[in-house]
Amino acid sequence: YRKKIIDEAGRFGCTNRVKLIGPISDADKAWYYQHCLAFAFPSIAEGFGLPVLEAMHFGKPVFLSNKTSLPEIGGNAAFYFDSFEPQAMQQAFGNGLQEFQKNNLQRKVMDHAAEFSWDRAAAQYLQLYGECLMEG
Questions:
Q1: Is the pLDDT of residue 38 over 80?
Q2: pTM
C-alpha cells in the first residue's frame, strides 16, 4: 500500500506531510504515543486493537472505526468514525478533540486502558477452558 498512500497524498497535495516510517523500536513507539496529539485507527479488519490500548495508556484521545472489535476495546473512552467519508472523519476528529480538551478526558482514557491486562485475559481464558472441560 506504500505506493497507493503516496499517490493519494500527491492527489491531495500533502506528500510533504506524509511520513511512512516503517518498523520502529518499542522506545520510538512510546515516544510517538507520548508526543502525538491523538491516535487515529480507522481499521475495518482488526482482531483486537492493541495499539488502541497503547495510545490510551498515554492518555491520548483515540479515534476508531466503529467496526470489528474496536468499540469493545475503546468503549465510551474513545471517539468513533461512523463514516469513512473524509468530511465525516474530519468532523468526528475535530469534535472529538474539542470534547477531549474541554472535558479534560485524559484520566478517563488512562483509567479505561488500565482495565485491560494480560493477567486478567489469561485468567478469563483459563476459566473459560475450565468451564468447557467440565461440560464435556
A1: yes
A2: 0.81
